[in-house]
Amino acid sequence: KAGVTQTPRYLIKTRGQQVTLSCSPISGHRSVSWYQQTPGQGLQFLFEYFSETQRNKGNFPGRFSGRQFSNSRSEMNVSTLELGDSALYLCASSLRAGGDSYEQYFGPGTRLTVT
Amino acid sequence: AQSVSQHNHHVILSEAASLELGCNYSYGGTVNLFWYVQYPGQHLQLLLKYFSGDPLVKGIKGFEAEFIKSKFSFNLRKPSVQWSDTAEYFCAVNARGLTGGGNKLTFGTGTQLKVEL
Question: What is the least distance, in Å, from the CA of B117 to any CA of chain A?
Answer without folding.
Answer: 28
